[in-house]
Specification:
32% of the residues lie in helices and 23% in strands. It is built from 10 helices and 13 strands. The chain has helices at 40-51, 61-64, 71-78, 93-102, 117-124, 153-162, 184-193, 208-216, 226-229, 235-242; strands at residues 2-10, 13-16, 26-27, 30-31, 34-35, 55-60, 83-87, 106-110, 130-137, 140-141, 167-172, 198-202, 221-224. The strands form 2 sheets. The protein has an 8-stranded parallel beta barrel with strand order 1-6-7-8-9-11-12-13, surrounded by 8 helices. It has a two-stranded antiparallel ribbon with strand order 4-5. Helix 7 links the parallel strand 11 and strand 12 (198-202). The radius of gyration is 17 Å and the shape is globular. It starts with a strand and ends in a 17-residue tail after the last helix.
Length: 259
C-alpha cells in the first residue's frame, strides 16, 4: 500500500490542515523532529528522507479557492525527485496542462471544483495522468456542479470511473487533522462500487492500526500528514505496511443470493 505525504499550501506556506476550516490553518512549525517553519520544501524533504516516501500530494489551497496558483512552489517540490500528485482547483484541460508543465506527475481533479463529468472525460484524454478526488464533508459530497444533489459517494465514484479515471481519492475534509480515524465503512462501499479502480483514502489516519485496517479493506494508498508530523507514525510503521498488498476487494463482497 502506497503511503503518500501531504503538503497543504496556503499563501506560500505549508500549513496544518484541520477539519477543512481553511481560514484557520496555521503553518507547520515542526514535523518528526525537523524544523519546518512553514517551508514546503523542508516538509517534502522530511517525508522523503525520514520516512522514505516517494509520492507527495500537494493541495494548492489558494488555487482551489480561485486565487493565483503556486506553480513555482510546485516546481521546487518536483525538483526533489518524488512523484507529485497536485490538486490545484482544476476546472479545465488547460489547468491540467499547466500543472504538468510545473512538475505534477498526476493531476488531481477535485469534486469540489469539477463542473461536469464530461469535463473530466475530456481532461482524461490529455497526456497527464488524472486522479479524481471525491471530496466529502462528514460523508456528504462537496460538489462544484458535477454531482447531482443527494447523489451517494458510491454513485459519484462510479461516474468518475466511467469518465476514465483509474485512481479515486476519497477525501473527507471533516476528518483531516483529527482523531476520529478513517471511515472504513464508506471506503469499503466505494471500493466495492469501483472494484477495478485504485482507491486512496484521505483524512483521519491516526496510527499503524489504521494503515493496516485500510489495507485489509482493499485501499491501494493513503494520504497522511498529521500522524507523520507528530510521531504517531514512525518510519518502521511505514515500512511495515508499505510492502503489503491490499486485500482483493472482490473477496470482501458478500456472496450473491440465489433468486
Amino acid at each position: 500500500m502506497r503511503i503518500i505525504g501531504v503538503i497543504d499550501l496556503k499563501d506560500g506556506l505549508a500549513v496544518h490542515a484541520r477539519g477543512g476550516r481553511r481560514d484557520a490553518y496555521a503553518p507547520v512549525n515542526a514535523a518528526a523532529g525537523v524544523s519546518i517553519d512553514g517551508n514546503p520544501v523542508a516538509l517534502a524533504r522530511m517525508y522523503i528522507e525520514t520516512f522514505g516516501l516517494d509520492t507527495i500530494y500537494v493541495a494548492d489551497l489558494n488555487a482551489i479557492a480561485g486565487d493565483a496558483p503556486h506553480d513555482e512552489a510546485i516546481r521546487r517540490l518536483g525538483a526533489l525527485g518524488a512523484s507529485l500528485m497536485v490538486d490545484a482547483g482544476i476546472r479545465g484541460a488547460g489547468d491540467g496542462h499547466r500543472l504538468a508543465v510545473a512538475g505534477a506527475g498526476t493531476t488531481v481533479v477535485g469534486l469540489e471544483t469539477l463542473q461536469s463529468f464530461d469535463a473530466l472525460s475530456e481532461m482524461r484524454r490529455g497526456r497527464s495522468p488524472i486522479a479524481f478526488s471525491l471530496d466529502l464533508r462528514q460523508g456528504v459530497p462537496i460538489s462544484g456542479g458535477a454531482a447531482k444533489r443527494g447523489q451517494s459517494p458510491e454513485a459519484i465514484a462510479a461516474q468518475a470511473a466511467g469518465a476514465g479515471v483509474d485512481t479515486i481519492i476519497v477525501l473527507d475534509v471533516a476528518r483531516v487533522g483529527g482523531n476520529t480515524g478513517p471511515d472504513l465503512s464508506m471506503l469499503r462501499r466505494i471500493g466495492e462500487a469501483v472494484p477495478d479502480i485504485r482507491v486512496v483514502a484521505a483524512g483521519g489516519v491516526r496510527d499503524g492500526d489504521d494503515l493496516r485496517a485500510l489495507a485489509a479493506i482493499g485501499c491501494d494508498g493513503v494520504l497522511v500528514a498529521s500522524a507523520l508530523h507528530d510521531g504517531r507514525l514512525t518510519p518502521a510503521d511505514i515500512r511495515a505496511v508499505r510492502d503489503t498488498q491490499p486485500s482483493d476487494r472482490s473477496s470482501l463482497r458478500p456472496p450473491s443470493r440465489s433468486r
